[in-house]
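Q: Could you predict the 3D structure of MoaD/ThiS family protein?
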Amino acid sequence: MAIEVRIPTILRTYTGGAKAVEGSGSTLAELFTDLDTRHAGIRDRIVDADKGDQLRRFVNVYLNDEDVRFLDGIETKVGDGDSITILPAVAGGALEKRMA
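A: Sure. Here are the predicted structure tokens for MoaD/ThiS family protein:
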């Protein structure tokens, strides 16, 4: 079962620079474990073992463009032909101009 996983720039050091990799599994949890067998360390950047193997707070994961936090989280079912996108959450904004 081939599932495409799109990798953000910040995690491409784990995939040898690849923008997308393939993995297998019936849930996101299994998929991330499978990815870690070929791209050691990537799972730890996505999954927080200290929080009961839940997705890290500042990592957004999408299954076919749908946020998995509104599905079944890391236990979301995946299948052949699905596309997973991993995006680190970004914070920030414009600096406020202050007048003295």
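Q: Anything worth pointing out?
A: The chain has one domain: 3-88.
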